[in-house]
Each structure stands twice: as C-alpha cells, then as structure tokens.
Design goal:
Length: about 200
Amino acid sequence: MKKSLTTAALSLLIICAALPAAYSADEKTHDFRKTRWGMSPAQVKVTEAGTFLGEGPLPPYDLAITYKGKFEGSDVEIGYMFNADKLVLAGYAFTERHDDNALYVKDYEKIKAVLTKKYGPPAQDTEVWTDETKKVEPKEFGNAVAGGALVLQSSWNAPRTYVFLTLKGDDGNATLSALYYSSELNPLAIEKQLQDTAEGY
C-alpha cells in the first residue's frame, strides 16, 4: 500500500488560528466525502464508492484503507486512517503524472481554488524554500518543487477539521496531496507536526 498520504500528513505544519468562513450544508453532516470523524472502518466502507485498493496497518495509524477514484476531475488515491477503530485522518493523493512540471503547480492552484470556495480564504498560504540558493521566478516553480527546493502549502481551519494542501517533491518528482484530519481525534498527527515545526520544515 502506498504511504504517500501518511507521509504528507506527518510533514504538515500545524495551524491553530481561527478562521471565519462560510460552510455549505454538506459540512454540517460530513467531514470528508460522506464520512464523519469517529466512524468505524465498516461505516466508512459503506459510504465509499471508489475502487478498493487495500487495507492494513500504517504506523502511526492502526489501519489505513485506500481506494482509487476522482476528485475534481483528477485521478486520486483516497485514503482513510483509523486509530482505535475511529476515523481520524483522510485525504487525497493525486496520482496523475505530467511531463511538464509546471502542470503540477497548475493542479495545486486549481485545487486551492476549489478548497477556498468551500472553506474561505486559507489560514496559511506559503512558499517554503528548502534551498534559498535555488529561488526562482514563479514560472519556474514546477521545476523547483520537483527538485525539492520549494514546497507550496495552504491550509484551512474548518469546524472539527484541519485541511492541508501540499505540493512538494524530490529527485524530479512532484507530489500533490490534500489532507483532512480531525482536530479532536488525531493527537498523534498534531504532536508530530509540532515536533516538525520545532525542528524546522
């Protein structure tokens, strides 16, 4: 089973500021797709119409269940993570590959616009240069991300949920992910994020 969703989740920066935003009726009943935090694996499986890929332990989570599907027209791996039989983290790993790295930035901006429409302006919208000597103009951001010099990240604080959109890369490969996690039921992820922040991104 791919570890992309968990890897992305454990490298996120925690954002604690409150964010006023408008939410649709869907957010009043669902936290991610058709699920609510705290659901059991059996309950989540009933809601998901994607193609089942697999399930198993994926530390620090007791269980990960993955599906193949679509999000906003893009091919994605859909992941659900559980601790103590409760859903605590879910998200999308975008699986489409591009020959032109600039298209990954285009994908990032597209999904950021979708999430902004849904949750309001991001609480965080950052460009993190892991190598200051490789800073480039925006038109070259795709190559900078793929080379590991730049990480693009936006986050939203919704009721019960933190949402992170991250575009990062290494060795010429870019990875886009959108992670949603429970602000109340996911202490392991929050603790790890705080450690990452203290140690540097």
